[in-house]
Write a structure and sequence with these properties.
By secondary structure, the chain is α/β, with parallel strands linked by helices. The chain contains 9 helices and 12 strands. It has helices at residues 4-15, 41-53, 59-80, 105-119, 139-150, 158-165, 191-206, 250-257, 283-289, and strands at 26-30, 35-36, 96-101, 123-128, 154-156, 174-178, 210-214, 229-230, 233-234, 241-245, 273-277, 304-310. β1 (26-30) and β2 form a beta hairpin. α2 (41-53) packs across α9, α3 (59-80) packs across α4 (105-119) and α4 runs parallel beside α5 (139-150). The two termini are 36 Å apart. The relative contact order is 0.19.
Length: 314
């Protein structure tokens, strides 16, 4: 499982190193301390297309790999962060996890993660953006929804979600953010879905539950790292955990270079706990893609690795 103690140890020893004047903001793998290069959303799309069309690693296979990685971080977060009920004792209250799933690859992976988490005995409810038009959702997303329902899972609209959480006997433990993904902006959503997304973001930020975001928190541009400004106000999900799929995206690094995901001197906010999950993109995929990163992330014997951020010179 993901070792949060390793992440904490590495943070204690390395996070506050004074970088050399020539250094630039970077991610490093924990505990190996190897630099972890970022890629753009477009490069990731190209890698996944090569894996699918040329090497036979289908979208469903990558989704399953991604879902398992997200679930591993989620279960470890609940276990290490005082999550209730994981011992499954008679007096335990089973933790509830809410999943936000948009009509995109992050949404597919979020639903797959929800199924894995539910299979490990937790209570999971998935809120799908655009569920009212289920027949218009991506084929892959509909397939994931069917699988989750087949295992007895609960799929809801935003209105149904807000009603459902009122019935819970214990506070919500974790929210998984797979709302916008890497390729869709707020502006590209239908007007009704925009309103729903705004409300879900606001609701998540009001909640005391921890938030795990896939690739980048919703509302942060996956390319530039800039926070969305809607009606003159910042609008993004305040995550505590971020799990990169296959490799960290440039926007995540840019956001942290701009100061997002880093607690300020007054202790406001929290440092993002960063992870990268293996979705099956082996060295052959990276070689065919011809990116500057020739071999991709070296996962060694793990499916998920912690990362740390090191800022550049002032």
């Amino acid at each position: 499982s993901v070792r949060f103690s390793d992440h904490a140890k590495a943070s204690d020893t390395n996070f506050h190193k004074i970088p050399s004047p020539a250094s630039k903001p970077s991610f490093f793998l924990v505990p190996s301390d190897r630099r972890c290069e970022t890629i753009s959303a477009l490069q990731m799309l190209n890698l996944e297309n090569i894996a699918d069309n040329e090497l036979g690693l289908s979208e469903d296979m990558m989704t399953e790999n991604a879902g398992r990685g997200i679930a591993e971080v989620a279960l470890s977060a609940l276990n290490s962060g005082g999550g209730r009920g994981l011992t499954q004792g008679k007096s335990s209250i089973i933790p509830t996890v809410v999943v936000f799933a948009g009509n995109n690859k992050s949404g597919l992976r979020a639903v797959a993660a929800g199924r894995h988490i539910r299979n490990h005995g937790l209570n999971v409810v998935i809120c799908v953006l655009g569920l009212e038009r289920e027949s218009e959702l991506l084929v892959g997303l509909r397939r994931q929804i069917k699988g989750f329902r087949g295992f007895g899972g609960k799929i809801v609209t935003k209105i149904e979600l807000l009603e459902y959480v009122k019935t819970l006997d214990a506070p919500l433990e974790l929210i998984i953010d797979g709302l916008l993904g890497l390729t869709i902006s707020f502006e590209e959503l239908r007007t009704g879905d925009q309103a729903t997304a705004y409300e879900l973001i606001a609701w998540a930020n009001r909640s005391k539950a921890r938030v795990l975001a896939i690739d980048v928190p919703t509302g942060i541009d996956p390319t530039t790292g800039k926070v969305s400004i809607i009606d003159g106000r910042q609008l993004y999900i305040h995550a505590e955990y971020v799990v990169a799929m296959g490799a960290p995206k440039k926007g995540l690094l840019e956001a942290m270079a701009l100061g997002e995901g880093i607690a300020d001197e007054d202790g406001k906010g929290k440092d993002w706990q960063l992870f990268v999950a293996d979705i099956g993109l082996g060295a052959a995929v990276w070689k065919k893609a011809g990116t500057r990163v020739r071999r991709g992330v070296e996962f060694d014997g793990s499916w998920v690795l912690a990362m740390r951020f090191q800022g550049g010179a002032e």
